[in-house]
Amino acid sequence: MKKFLLLLLVLSVGFQGALMAQTRTVTGKVTGADDGIGIPRANITVKGTTRGVPSDLDGNFTIEVAANETLVFSFVGYISKEVLVGNQTTINVALEPDYAELEEVVVVGYGSQEKKEITSSVVALDAKEFNKGNVNDPAQLLQGKVPGLSIYNKGSDPNSGATIRLRGISTVGANVQPLVVIDGVIGASLDNVDPNDIESVNVLKDGSAAAIYGSRGSAGVILVTTKSGERGGKGLSASYNGYAAVDDVFRFQSVMTPDEYIAAGGNDLGSRTIWQEEVTRTAVSHVHNIAISGGSENTTFRLSTNFRNIQGVLKKSGFDQINARANVDHYALNDKLNIKFNLSMTNREQDFSFNEALRYAALFNPTAPIYTDASQSEFFQAILFDNFNPVAIIEQNTNIGQRKNLNFNTQVSYDLTDNLTWSANYAQQYSTSTNGAFYPSNSLFRGFNRIGLANRRTDESKFTLFETYGTFVKDFDNSSLTVSAGYSFQEEQFTGFGLEAGNFPSDDIGFNIISASGNIVGDLANASIFSYESPENRILAFFGRVNFNLNNGIFFNASVRREGSTKLGADNQWGTFPAVGVGADLLQYVDLAAFSQLKIRAGYGVTGSLPGPSGLAQDLYSYATTGGGTVSFVRAGNPDLKWEEKAEINLGLDFGLLGGKLNGSLDVYTRDINDFILERTVDPAVYGTNLRYENAGKLNTKGIELALNHTGFGSGGFNWSPGIVLSSYKTTLEEFVIDENMIANLGAPGQNETNLVRIAVGEQIGQIWGPVFSGNVDAEGRPIMVDLNDDGQLLTEQGSALAADGDFQEIGNGIPDVELGWTNQLTYGNWDMNLFFRAAFGHSLVNTFRAFYEPIDPGAINSYNRTKTDLQIEDLTVAQFSSLYVEKADFFRLDNATVGYNFDMANNDMFSNLRLYLSVQNAFVITNYTGVDPDPVLQDRGAVDNGGAPGNPNVLAPGIDRRYNYFTSRTFTFGLNIGF
């Protein structure tokens, strides 16, 4: 019997092998079951292999296949179909439309809508569309992917967040970045969600989409949905995603070599030190994500843990982080009741290092040694103004911190009837940061004059959210209606404490025993102590929305939010934020054979913006212990202080061509931002003091955005799917407290009276303003400027910048004319490749390194190295700001290139998927900018000299490439994705 079974097995294997060897030519046509029209570029593949062909433009195909093989027919928007070949030589297949996919649901504020019904400007991205590689900030997932969304992280500082702008400037106050909503929690922190845990992101760009969020939606809204378990009783599944990354400095500041420095007259101290290399390193990082999920018919869950050990290219910069997230989703009472619970915790240990070391590495004498002795116990220091050994800055001093975030939310929804659902959401978020720095008594950089210096500060915040709303849905014969209405309560509170003191008995104490400071023991006047607590800032709101669909061709949306805030004046705490939108599917009414989709949209919406600080509407007093105790009236309250308000009109067109292969959207918009909340100088005779916060000013922004995506070109198993996004905008200052002003100081040494940016009523934001360099130098080494008004005299000193006869003009603009993102997804068999290019054109940057350090001053060259570029002017020895130091910073960058291989796990009992990939970020950049990074600078934090700290961001002063910026890096990443 055993021999007989063995014989049957051998014969069976042989027969199957013979069948495999006997291939035949199979032809056929792929059509849509709903209309019988051929589907172009449908995918026909042999099941379990990477072999396949696409159909032609009429849906026809030809393929070589064996009789025992199965063909899989698939196309976007249709349900895939499998057919066993057998003895067939002709196979015609009609694919059924996948209505679940065609009727894509998009998350919007307080609910979701079918994509076809959207009348506002909304972009939805899922995980497969995110940027790949060493991504530590969730905002980087979206960089260059959404038209109108600008995300820039100048340099590659791992401890610095990105600057985010949606459609340019939304306010001149605090609320300049889009509102983030994570799993329904308004204002949740992106710092508390790991990029690996994000399932999708929806961006609400225009006012009609964001108005439902009222005062916090003025800068747009980013809706984040995290990953969750899958319902259906499929049991447990697990995944591991990990990678290792290597970073190197992409571009150093261009400075003189030691030999060039000596030849230019520099003081030769006998060494040859490349300082920028001494303070940087090859940074090695590794990231690990482990997730477990599962689900039954009634309950699903997902648990994940993320470990990140991230190094920056600046020595001693980076962080260690652990993040844990739990999602539980439960259904009960015949699915009428749904309860969701989300919990996330993050702990990050940070080493900030000192960005100043990068500045002084470009400046310090390249012939100086690092140490004064062979034992390397004492650092060499040049006792000169603004000149510190950059290695000593890093090695002698400490600058560390810890950040903890915790948030949770519980959402409950219940179907009261078949048409009415009630929902509620309660959430809390806690954040704590503790930072400390210590400078020993031998640190010339800081601490030397204080016999050691230490500082510590702690900041805490608490946010509470409660929202409840009802949704009524009703379908009629040829229409449908959705009505939502609800209530929102938000409360936030901030507290903090800080202390700085010097005069320590030993450098070994550090900031953890700051009580040993002599300043505290007996010299309290030299200690700095502060503490603060905000009031419990509250927002109360009532909101409602109506969506109406007529015959699947006309779509109407309207919403209103009535909101009050304790931050505003007693007479103006409440505001109303309405929105309305309408859309029409033209193909329902006009037969246009060239289009597979053609929808027009129009929307209008009003959003608001709140001030950052509390108490601006109340009087402010200061207290001092001098003179037996004094009280000073600092700032007058304003009971009429009200919202900043943004009103926006958006017109959009969604279209599809080439049988749905090419899809795109076009949006144009205009918006007005009114009533900036500004601190103004007022008449003391009226208000009792000279300062008061008031509403004043108006901005107008006009822009255009385009997105194009193609489902794919190719044949023989190869497919290329490109996509491109373009955006452009201009902002004009229409009203302001003064008609014309100069802002953004260049800074010390020597140019701290030079302002770089002009703002003027009736003109565009972003004007870099200064004299024009003629290209010539006088006998004393001074730059000769152009007589712009031909009056025979040169007025180019800073005080003449706005004079009627001054020789100044716009010499650049910090806002790009065009921003571009170009995605290329390529697949061949089990291989995939993604090439993502990013570009910006039309913006300029003030290269402050050149403005300070490029002229070769015969006195300074003895001690300071100089910046060296092809733009350097021979015989120029005097540093004076002009057009010479303003450079066009257009760039085209290969931002991310990723190659991956997906192993076939169809017959593997252990793994559900296995993928290896290699990624390079910032692979190359094409630019004429001579600085480190040509990315636009959309705001300015002021000149920061030794001992100072960056100020509040000024969005009216873009385009200044400051000397404290972190160096950009190129990153290579090797990663592994495993599913169990």
From TrEMBL:
GO terms for biological process: siderophore transmembrane transport. This is SusC/RagA family TonB-linked outer membrane protein. Residues 115-221 form the TonB-dependent receptor plug domain. Transmembrane segments: none annotated. Residues 1-21 form the signal peptide. InterPro entries: Beta-barrel_TonB, Beta-barrel_TonB_sf, CarboxyPept-like_regulatory, Plug_dom, Plug_dom_sf, TonB-dep_OMP_SusC/RagA, TonB-dep_OMP_SusC/RagA_CS, TonB-dep_rcpt-like. Belongs to the TonB-dependent receptor family. GO terms for molecular function: siderophore uptake transmembrane transporter activity. Keywords: Cell outer membrane, Membrane, Receptor, Signal, TonB box, Transmembrane, Transmembrane beta strand, Transport. It is a multi-pass membrane protein. It comes from Roseivirga spongicola. NCBIfam families: OMP_RagA_SusC (TIGR04056), SusC_RagA_signa (TIGR04057). PANTHER family: HEMOGLOBIN AND HEMOGLOBIN-HAPTOGLOBIN-BINDING PROTEIN 1-RELATED (PTHR30069:SF29), TONB-DEPENDENT OUTER MEMBRANE RECEPTOR (PTHR30069).
